[in-house]
């Protein structure tokens, strides 16, 4: 979940790769996955679809125990707001969801009015979290 992602865990990110136009998405789910490499499109084994992923710097070190790298993957499920606007998340958003406009390498992203199902009253900014 995004709330559980620590800044230290994403400090080796070099870039975020988007597979879709994120400007039309109110939110994306993010998770940290253990992957065998620093770069490249990871395999995807969830329902729904992957919309992006993080690429790590060449200096990023693998886990000493597993030899894997922790990388963020951004995804959506079939019942998320982009495909079911009047569904479960017509308002509110999953715990691991953030506004993709607030995401940059090495930042966790934020919930905004838009990601929570409200109107976009001001352009989102990485330093502007949802009040409350």
Features:
132 residues; mainly beta
What do you see in this structure?
The protein has strands at 13-18, 28-35, 49-56, 69-76, 97-98. It is an all-beta fold and 132 residues long. The chain contains no helices and 5 strands. A 5-stranded antiparallel beta sheet has the order 1-3-4-2-5, with no helix packed on it. It has one domain. The protein is 0% helix and 24% strand. It is elongated. The relative contact order is 0.24.
Number of helical stretches of at least 4 residues: 0
Shape: elongated
Structural class assignment: mainly beta
Provide the low-confidence segments as ranges: none
Number of domains: 1
Averaged pLDDT, please?
A: 88
Please summarize the sheet with the most strands: 5 strands, antiparallel
What is the rounded Rg? 15 Å
Order of helices and strands: EEEEE
Strand content: 15-25%
Terminal CA distance reads 19 Å
Helix percentage range: under 10%
Across the major sheet, the strand order is 1-3-4-2-5
Work out the number of β strands.
Answer: 5
Organism: Streptomyces globisporus
Pfam family, one: DUF6009
Protein name: Transcription factor
InterPro entries: DUF6009
